[in-house]
Fold this protein.
Amino acid sequence: MSALTAAPTAAPPRSAHRWVALSILALAQFLIVLDASIVNIALPVLGEQLHMGTAALAWVITAYVLAFGGLLLLGGRLADRYGHRRVFLIGTAGFVAASALAGFSSTSEMLLAARALQGVSAALVAPAALALLTQLFPDAKERTRALGVWGGVAGIGSAAGVLLGGVLTATLGWQSVFFVNVPVGAIVLIAIPLLITRDGARSPGRLDAAGAVTVTAALVALVGAFSAVERVGFLHPLPAILLVVALAFGIVFIAVERRTPEPLVPLTVFRNRDLALGNVVMLLGGAAMVALFFALSVYMQAVLGYTPLITGLSQLPLAGALVLVAGVVPSLIARAGVRPALAGSLIVLAGGLVWLAFAPADAVFLTQLLGPTLLIGIGLGGAVVAATQLGVDGVAGGESGLAGGLINTSQQIGGAIGLAVLGTVAALRTAALEADGAAVADAVTGGFAWLFVGAAVLAFVGAVAVAVWPRR
């Protein structure tokens, strides 16, 4: 089935309350996004109680990221093959079970296994949920509004992780950052079968096992390579070896897909120029966004001396702006078009990041941080919604799970690359300033200034790509 089909060919899953169903799907997406950041604040306490060293603690994050990023394409294709609703429910049930297992963990091995299972489950949930959204809202205007809700909820999850992680860890212990997923996930499992009564038509044929194995290996190696850079640096042989492995599996994957009559990822899907552009922009935006949230949280705590709770509260204006804009941008897209809205959002994001780069080591929040973070929230809100719409528009119903997997994979790969590259740039700049005799706080601030400027460059490159990319 061609990815260039203008509208879903299968009847959408029936739901008498589509907007309620959307809120439940968005709740599941919120859990997945939240889980990528909420654990960070709990790591010190968790490590002390489970006797985990720094290297082992890094794997608490890496185990989730590797499984999630590496299996997203396979998860999307499984949803197309076996039913979006079915795979979504299986993934949600797995995520709830893995979260409970993580909360009950008494050893590091048990926790790491649970985190990997969380990542596997999330890789099923994310593309299936986005596919269900596109089929629940076949009308272009309604779909744009729905994606606005989707983007706003995802933004809340990114920013809320720091705040909720600090509050839950301080009041209920590190286990609570995992247990909080259980009742919320249970609501999703109960509500979705009632709101979405059946699946749409499934893709026929066999699952491309060779393609699934090779692309998963390539993505895991790629995410692992850039995750390793954060731990050991660019000069260590491990990232280079993993990059070579990723390249080798990627070449094999392309060769397999060219010869397979029923490929996991039909390469013709990239003839859809909107889909290709949406993924390129999401790759760049994911790189800028993940590096930003990492640096902003560290800057507020390590340089400005904020507590985790105050850090979370300080990021609420950014999250609020993101949510409000995500709700407004669908109207802007309806009037001006998705590409102008996306380009404008990326330029606003770049402007906010450059402004933030001028924040000093003794910045006052109201006068020197509030403005740029609000501007960043506005840019991110518009960019996430518009890029996601480009990535799923014009895709056949039988390939909507694939489209969801692609756009989520682009964001995850972009995040891994952005954090590794821009984090290294910040570290090198900090070291250079310290060698020149700068105070530690000033040196760290100077390093993060380069990171923010680098993220702004990525956003600007995305805006240029939108302007010059050929239209469908």
Q: What stands out?
A: DSSP finds 16 helices and no strands in the chain. The CA atoms of residues 134 and 356 lie 36 Å apart.
